[in-house]
Amino acid sequence: MQNILITGGSGLIGQRITALLEAQGKSVAWLSRSKQSQKSFIWDIEKESIDPEAMEWADAIIHLAGAGVADKRWTEERKKLILESRTKSTQLIYKAVAAATNQPDTLISASAVGVYGFNTYTDLMEESSPEGNDFLANVVKAWEAEVKKIESLHLRTVILRIGIVLDEHGGALGEMLKPPVAAPLGNGDQWMSWIHIEDLAKMFVFALEKTTLQGVFNAVSPNPATNFRLTQEAARAKGKPFIGIGVPAFLLRLILGEMAVMVLGGNRVSSSKIQKSGFEYEFPMLIPALKDIFHR
Protein backbone atom coordinates (compact mmCIF):
# COMPACT_ATOMS: atom_id res chain seq x y z
CA MET A 1 0.00 0.00 0.00
CA GLN A 2 1.30 3.46 -0.93
CA ASN A 3 1.39 6.11 1.82
CA ILE A 4 0.51 9.65 0.68
CA LEU A 5 1.12 12.68 2.92
CA ILE A 6 -0.95 15.79 2.08
CA THR A 7 -0.42 19.35 3.31
CA GLY A 8 -3.56 21.51 3.17
CA GLY A 9 -5.59 18.31 3.14
CA SER A 10 -8.63 19.79 4.89
CA GLY A 11 -9.19 22.32 2.09
CA LEU A 12 -11.53 21.94 -0.88
CA ILE A 13 -8.94 20.37 -3.18
CA GLY A 14 -7.23 18.33 -0.46
CA GLN A 15 -10.43 16.63 0.62
CA ARG A 16 -11.29 15.62 -2.95
CA ILE A 17 -7.79 14.25 -3.59
CA THR A 18 -7.95 12.35 -0.28
CA ALA A 19 -11.26 10.72 -1.28
CA LEU A 20 -9.88 9.68 -4.70
CA LEU A 21 -6.69 8.20 -3.23
CA GLU A 22 -8.50 6.31 -0.48
CA ALA A 23 -10.95 4.91 -3.04
CA GLN A 24 -7.89 3.44 -4.77
CA GLY A 25 -6.80 1.76 -1.55
CA LYS A 26 -3.95 4.15 -0.77
CA SER A 27 -3.23 5.23 2.80
CA VAL A 28 -3.56 9.02 3.24
CA ALA A 29 -2.43 11.23 6.11
CA TRP A 30 -2.56 15.02 6.46
CA LEU A 31 0.11 17.32 7.82
CA SER A 32 -1.98 19.45 10.16
CA ARG A 33 -1.69 21.95 13.02
CA SER A 34 -3.99 19.78 15.14
CA LYS A 35 -5.23 16.21 15.25
CA GLN A 36 -7.93 15.49 12.67
CA SER A 37 -10.49 12.73 12.20
CA GLN A 38 -8.35 11.95 9.13
CA LYS A 39 -5.02 10.23 9.98
CA SER A 40 -2.61 13.11 10.59
CA PHE A 41 0.85 14.21 11.65
CA ILE A 42 1.39 17.50 13.48
CA TRP A 43 3.40 20.41 12.13
CA ASP A 44 3.74 24.09 13.08
CA ILE A 45 5.10 26.29 10.32
CA GLU A 46 5.73 29.32 12.58
CA LYS A 47 7.66 27.23 15.11
CA GLU A 48 9.38 25.33 12.27
CA SER A 49 8.43 22.02 13.86
CA ILE A 50 7.20 18.84 12.21
CA ASP A 51 6.62 15.29 13.41
CA PRO A 52 9.75 13.48 12.13
CA GLU A 53 7.67 10.32 11.63
CA ALA A 54 5.72 12.03 8.83
CA MET A 55 8.51 11.78 6.26
CA GLU A 56 9.55 8.31 7.41
CA TRP A 57 5.95 7.16 6.83
CA ALA A 58 5.34 8.88 3.48
CA ASP A 59 6.09 7.41 0.07
CA ALA A 60 4.95 10.63 -1.60
CA ILE A 61 3.92 14.18 -0.64
CA ILE A 62 1.14 16.31 -2.12
CA HIS A 63 1.79 19.92 -1.07
CA LEU A 64 -1.28 22.21 -1.14
CA ALA A 65 -0.76 24.36 1.98
CA GLY A 66 -1.04 28.14 1.69
CA ALA A 67 -3.23 30.96 3.00
CA GLY A 68 -6.14 31.86 0.68
CA VAL A 69 -5.23 34.74 -1.63
CA ALA A 70 -8.82 35.99 -1.91
CA ASP A 71 -10.03 35.42 1.66
CA LYS A 72 -9.22 38.88 3.08
CA ARG A 73 -8.06 42.33 1.92
CA TRP A 74 -4.37 42.56 1.16
CA THR A 75 -2.95 44.44 4.11
CA GLU A 76 0.84 44.26 4.43
CA GLU A 77 0.34 41.67 7.18
CA ARG A 78 -1.96 39.58 4.98
CA LYS A 79 0.45 39.74 2.02
CA LYS A 80 3.25 38.54 4.28
CA LEU A 81 1.08 35.59 5.39
CA ILE A 82 0.16 34.71 1.78
CA LEU A 83 3.86 34.56 0.88
CA GLU A 84 5.29 32.92 3.98
CA SER A 85 2.55 30.30 4.37
CA ARG A 86 3.84 28.96 1.05
CA THR A 87 7.59 29.52 1.27
CA LYS A 88 8.05 28.60 4.94
CA SER A 89 5.87 25.48 4.70
CA THR A 90 7.94 24.34 1.71
CA GLN A 91 11.21 25.07 3.53
CA LEU A 92 9.97 22.99 6.45
CA ILE A 93 9.20 20.06 4.14
CA TYR A 94 12.70 20.39 2.66
CA LYS A 95 14.32 20.17 6.10
CA ALA A 96 12.14 17.21 7.13
CA VAL A 97 12.84 15.29 3.90
CA ALA A 98 16.58 16.01 4.15
CA ALA A 99 16.63 14.67 7.73
CA ALA A 100 14.60 11.53 6.98
CA THR A 101 16.29 8.14 6.88
CA ASN A 102 13.60 6.74 4.62
CA GLN A 103 12.80 9.61 2.23
CA PRO A 104 9.62 9.93 0.14
CA ASP A 105 10.36 9.55 -3.57
CA THR A 106 7.80 11.99 -5.03
CA LEU A 107 6.56 15.54 -4.41
CA ILE A 108 3.52 16.94 -6.23
CA SER A 109 3.14 20.63 -5.39
CA ALA A 110 0.39 23.12 -6.07
CA SER A 111 1.28 26.44 -7.66
CA ALA A 112 -0.77 29.04 -9.58
CA VAL A 113 -1.22 30.53 -13.05
CA GLY A 114 -0.78 33.90 -11.33
CA VAL A 115 2.93 33.38 -12.04
CA TYR A 116 2.34 34.79 -15.55
CA GLY A 117 1.20 38.16 -14.20
CA PHE A 118 -2.17 39.60 -13.21
CA ASN A 119 -3.21 40.33 -16.81
CA THR A 120 -1.73 38.72 -19.91
CA TYR A 121 -4.64 39.79 -22.14
CA THR A 122 -5.24 37.45 -25.13
CA ASP A 123 -1.76 35.86 -25.19
CA LEU A 124 -1.85 32.09 -24.69
CA MET A 125 0.46 31.35 -21.75
CA GLU A 126 2.52 28.17 -21.76
CA GLU A 127 4.79 26.83 -19.02
CA SER A 128 7.78 28.50 -20.70
CA SER A 129 6.05 31.90 -21.07
CA PRO A 130 7.54 34.96 -19.31
CA GLU A 131 6.73 35.35 -15.62
CA GLY A 132 4.98 38.43 -14.26
CA ASN A 133 6.29 40.91 -11.72
CA ASP A 134 3.26 41.83 -9.59
CA PHE A 135 2.58 40.68 -6.03
CA LEU A 136 0.98 37.32 -6.87
CA ALA A 137 3.53 36.51 -9.58
CA ASN A 138 6.35 37.17 -7.12
CA VAL A 139 4.66 34.96 -4.49
CA VAL A 140 4.39 32.08 -6.97
CA LYS A 141 7.99 32.52 -8.16
CA ALA A 142 9.27 32.40 -4.57
CA TRP A 143 7.06 29.37 -3.82
CA GLU A 144 8.21 27.42 -6.87
CA ALA A 145 11.86 28.25 -6.10
CA GLU A 146 11.48 26.56 -2.69
CA VAL A 147 9.77 23.53 -4.29
CA LYS A 148 12.65 23.18 -6.75
CA LYS A 149 15.12 22.99 -3.83
CA ILE A 150 13.33 19.81 -2.70
CA GLU A 151 13.98 18.39 -6.17
CA SER A 152 17.71 18.58 -5.31
CA LEU A 153 17.05 15.89 -2.65
CA HIS A 154 16.39 13.48 -5.56
CA LEU A 155 12.60 13.45 -5.32
CA ARG A 156 10.61 13.31 -8.54
CA THR A 157 8.97 16.72 -8.46
CA VAL A 158 5.86 17.93 -10.30
CA ILE A 159 4.46 21.48 -10.01
CA LEU A 160 0.83 22.04 -11.05
CA ARG A 161 -0.02 25.68 -11.77
CA ILE A 162 -3.70 25.85 -10.85
CA GLY A 163 -6.21 28.15 -12.52
CA ILE A 164 -9.70 29.08 -11.27
CA VAL A 165 -11.20 26.02 -9.60
CA LEU A 166 -14.89 25.48 -10.29
CA ASP A 167 -16.83 23.87 -7.45
CA GLU A 168 -20.23 24.53 -5.94
CA HIS A 169 -19.01 24.59 -2.36
CA GLY A 170 -16.36 27.29 -2.48
CA GLY A 171 -13.75 29.17 -4.46
CA ALA A 172 -14.37 31.67 -7.25
CA LEU A 173 -17.73 30.29 -8.38
CA GLY A 174 -19.32 30.74 -4.96
CA GLU A 175 -18.13 34.35 -4.78
CA MET A 176 -19.26 35.17 -8.33
CA LEU A 177 -22.77 33.93 -7.64
CA LYS A 178 -23.14 35.31 -4.12
CA PRO A 179 -24.97 38.55 -5.09
CA PRO A 180 -28.71 38.27 -5.92
CA VAL A 181 -27.91 39.14 -9.54
CA ALA A 182 -24.79 37.90 -11.36
CA ALA A 183 -22.78 40.39 -13.42
CA PRO A 184 -19.38 40.43 -15.14
CA LEU A 185 -16.49 42.19 -13.42
CA GLY A 186 -15.08 45.29 -15.10
CA ASN A 187 -15.52 45.03 -18.87
CA GLY A 188 -15.78 41.22 -18.63
CA ASP A 189 -13.22 40.69 -21.41
CA GLN A 190 -10.53 39.29 -19.11
CA TRP A 191 -9.74 35.61 -19.59
CA MET A 192 -10.44 33.07 -16.87
CA SER A 193 -8.53 29.80 -17.13
CA TRP A 194 -10.79 27.49 -15.14
CA ILE A 195 -10.75 23.81 -14.17
CA HIS A 196 -13.48 21.58 -12.72
CA ILE A 197 -12.46 20.43 -9.22
CA GLU A 198 -12.90 16.80 -10.26
CA ASP A 199 -10.39 17.19 -13.11
CA LEU A 200 -7.97 19.01 -10.81
CA ALA A 201 -8.08 16.27 -8.16
CA LYS A 202 -7.63 13.64 -10.87
CA MET A 203 -4.67 15.58 -12.26
CA PHE A 204 -2.88 15.40 -8.89
CA VAL A 205 -3.52 11.63 -8.77
CA PHE A 206 -2.34 11.33 -12.39
CA ALA A 207 0.89 13.21 -11.55
CA LEU A 208 1.40 10.91 -8.57
CA GLU A 209 0.91 7.71 -10.54
CA LYS A 210 2.69 8.59 -13.80
CA THR A 211 6.26 8.08 -12.60
CA THR A 212 7.83 9.54 -15.75
CA LEU A 213 6.11 12.90 -15.20
CA GLN A 214 8.35 15.69 -13.93
CA GLY A 215 8.49 19.49 -14.06
CA VAL A 216 5.92 22.28 -14.35
CA PHE A 217 2.42 21.85 -15.83
CA ASN A 218 -0.56 24.19 -16.16
CA ALA A 219 -3.60 22.79 -14.33
CA VAL A 220 -6.39 24.39 -16.35
CA SER A 221 -9.08 23.16 -18.75
CA PRO A 222 -8.37 23.23 -22.51
CA ASN A 223 -11.07 25.90 -23.02
CA PRO A 224 -10.62 29.14 -21.04
CA ALA A 225 -13.53 31.60 -21.09
CA THR A 226 -13.92 35.33 -20.65
CA ASN A 227 -15.23 36.61 -17.34
CA PHE A 228 -18.43 37.70 -19.13
CA ARG A 229 -19.11 34.24 -20.57
CA LEU A 230 -18.17 32.31 -17.44
CA THR A 231 -20.38 34.51 -15.26
CA GLN A 232 -23.26 34.31 -17.74
CA GLU A 233 -23.08 30.49 -18.08
CA ALA A 234 -22.63 29.98 -14.33
CA ALA A 235 -25.71 32.13 -13.62
CA ARG A 236 -27.69 30.13 -16.19
CA ALA A 237 -26.60 26.79 -14.71
CA LYS A 238 -27.41 27.99 -11.19
CA GLY A 239 -30.74 29.54 -12.25
CA LYS A 240 -29.79 33.08 -11.21
CA PRO A 241 -30.53 36.34 -13.02
CA PHE A 242 -27.65 37.76 -15.10
CA ILE A 243 -27.10 41.40 -16.06
CA GLY A 244 -24.64 42.05 -18.88
CA ILE A 245 -23.52 45.39 -17.43
CA GLY A 246 -20.17 44.94 -15.69
CA VAL A 247 -19.42 45.99 -12.12
CA PRO A 248 -17.27 49.12 -12.65
CA ALA A 249 -13.52 48.73 -12.11
CA PHE A 250 -13.35 51.76 -9.79
CA LEU A 251 -16.01 50.20 -7.54
CA LEU A 252 -14.14 46.90 -7.38
CA ARG A 253 -10.94 48.75 -6.44
CA LEU A 254 -12.86 50.60 -3.73
CA ILE A 255 -14.30 47.36 -2.30
CA LEU A 256 -11.31 45.05 -2.76
CA GLY A 257 -8.36 47.42 -2.67
CA GLU A 258 -5.17 46.07 -4.27
CA MET A 259 -6.81 42.63 -4.50
CA ALA A 260 -9.01 43.97 -7.34
CA VAL A 261 -6.20 43.14 -9.81
CA MET A 262 -7.14 39.47 -9.33
CA VAL A 263 -10.61 39.95 -10.83
CA LEU A 264 -9.92 42.78 -13.27
CA GLY A 265 -7.00 40.97 -14.88
CA GLY A 266 -6.87 37.49 -16.34
CA ASN A 267 -4.79 34.82 -18.04
CA ARG A 268 -5.49 32.69 -21.09
CA VAL A 269 -3.50 29.59 -20.22
CA SER A 270 -2.62 26.52 -22.30
CA SER A 271 -3.27 22.95 -21.11
CA SER A 272 -1.38 21.43 -24.04
CA LYS A 273 1.62 20.11 -22.06
CA ILE A 274 -0.38 18.05 -19.52
CA GLN A 275 -2.61 16.72 -22.33
CA LYS A 276 0.43 15.59 -24.33
CA SER A 277 1.62 13.71 -21.23
CA GLY A 278 -1.55 11.59 -21.40
CA PHE A 279 -3.98 13.32 -19.04
CA GLU A 280 -7.61 13.17 -20.19
CA TYR A 281 -10.22 15.65 -18.96
CA GLU A 282 -13.66 14.60 -17.86
CA PHE A 283 -14.91 18.20 -18.18
CA PRO A 284 -12.97 20.03 -20.91
CA MET A 285 -15.94 22.25 -21.89
CA LEU A 286 -17.45 25.00 -19.72
CA ILE A 287 -21.21 24.32 -20.03
CA PRO A 288 -21.05 20.56 -19.21
CA ALA A 289 -18.68 21.38 -16.32
CA LEU A 290 -21.14 23.91 -14.85
CA LYS A 291 -24.10 21.59 -15.38
CA ASP A 292 -22.29 18.86 -13.48
CA ILE A 293 -21.43 21.20 -10.62
CA PHE A 294 -24.96 22.54 -10.15
CA HIS A 295 -26.98 19.41 -10.96
CA ARG A 296 -25.11 16.60 -9.25
Automatic annotation (TrEMBL):
All residue ranges annotated as the DUF1731 domain in the record? 247-293
Source domain of life is Bacteria
Pfam families (alphabetical): DUF1731, Epimerase
Q: Where is the NAD-dependent epimerase/dehydratase domain?
A: 4-127, 184-212
PANTHER family with a match to the protein in the record: EPIMERASE FAMILY PROTEIN SDR39U1, SUGAR NUCLEOTIDE EPIMERASE RELATED
Q: Which family does it belong to?
A: Belongs to the NAD(P)-dependent epimerase/dehydratase family. SDR39U1 subfamily.
Task: Please report the name of this protein according to its UniProt entry.
Answer: TIGR01777 family protein
Question: Which organism does this record belong to?
Answer: Algoriphagus halophilus
